[in-house]
Amino acid sequence: MKTWLLLAGAVLPLAAAGAMPGVDDAQRAQRNWMMQCQGCHGAAAAGNASGVPGIAGAVARFLGVEGGREYLIRVPGVANAALSDERLAELLNWTLQRFDGAHVPAHFVPFTADEIAALRQRPYASEAFAVRAALLAALADKTGTPGGAEVDQAP
Q1: Which one of 36, 41, 79, 142 has the lowest number of neighbouring Cβ atoms within 10 Å?
Q2: Which residues make Cβ contacts (< 8 Å) with residue 21, sequence separation at least 6?
Q3: Which CATH number is 21's domain given?
């Protein structure tokens, strides 16, 4: 019995780590979501009536269009988050898989601290709206759905 428990103690964390690529600690990522994102996007990532976009069931779709990955890093709420590059990469990876795992591409490469460091230095400001509109148009062209359907909301 002790051998089984030792084996389970060694294997279960590895299995959990493999469940979300790019996420070393899902509980930490969830806490960071709560502290950095949930206040505006909501606990269920549904957004709010004041124009904060719901990202549940939609955010990973940006990975399918050119510029979408960069957008997810440079959007002001992400780029300016009070997290290290490592923790922000983990949070982005967790968010994609937690709230829109169905649309994470099979070839998904997790965000890295180096990628975050390079792009968050140039956060979008007012152009975030235009960039989002262009990405939504690209999504609409790709999917045939006007406005990108569920992702057609404010930045």
Answers
A1: 142
A2: 93, 97, 108, 110
A3: 1.10.760.10
Which residue shows structure tokens 């994102």?
37
The model's pTM: 0.82
Sign of CA dihedral 125, 138, 103, 105: negative
- How many beta carbons lie within 10 A of that of residue 117, not counting itself? 15
CB-based contact 92:55 (threshold 8 Å): no
Q: What are phi and psi of 48, to 5 degrees?
A: -150, 170
Which residues constitute the domain of residue 87? 2-151
